[in-house]
Amino acid sequence: MPSNKRESFVYTIMMCFVMVFWMSLYNIYLHAGTFSLEVFKTAWLGLPLGYCCALILDWFVVSTTAKKVAFKLLPTFASPLRKILTVSSCMVLPMVFFMSLYGAVEVLSHTQEWDQLFILWGVNILKNVVMALPFQLLIAGPLVRKVFRRIFPVGTILA
Question: Can you tell which superkingdom this protein's organism belongs to (predicted)?
């Protein structure tokens, strides 16, 4: 886990990239019904806007509150693994909430059926939490932490 604000920012940049790209692939795949090069291309082309939105939400809206909630839920003697799992879970759930709205607005901007916004948003939340939480806890989190520490050993990014 990052140990200061600069490390946290670099880690957030890396984690947002992995999560946004994966969840974009997942959502476009669900919409298309098949995985193809077109799904990959669409996810890649949509990545910059989704990534910027997620990065801003993570850094300015979700992170501080999620970490406060996580550390209120944790006993003072919690293991590092329990801390990681709790903080990650507390980050994923609000990010799914907000980014599912982003996805619903993006889809409806093409169809112009704005009366369907809350239905689509709710459906997106359910579909996304089923993928995002396990992906974050089992794949993205461990992978990004390992790559982050390999590139930036403890103490190389100063506060």
Answer: Bacteria
CB atoms within 10 A of CB 156: 9
pLDDT per residue rounded down to tens, the chain (159 residues): 666 788 889 999 999 999 999 999 999 999 889 999 999 999 999 999 999 999 999 999 999 999 999 999 998 888 989 999 999 999 999 999 999 999 999 988 888 888 889 999 999 999 999 999 999 999 999 999 999 989 888 767 665
Sign of the dihedral defined by the CA atoms of residues 102, 123, 85, 148, in that order: negative
123 CB-contact burial (10 Å; exposed 0-12 / middle 13-18 / buried 19+) = middle
Other residues' Cβ atoms within 10 Å of the Cβ of residue 12: 18
Q: Take residue 81 and report the two structure tokens written for it.
A: 């693994």
**Residues whose CB falls within 8 Å of the CB of residue 120, separated by 6 or more in sequence, listed in order:** 104, 107, 108
Q: Which helix (H) or strand (E) holds 95?
A: helix 80-111
Cα angle for residues 103, 119, 58 (degrees, 5° grid): 35
Under a CB-based contact definition with an 8 Å cutoff, are residues 136 and 93 in contact? no
pTM of the predicted model as reported, rounded to 2 decimal places: 0.89
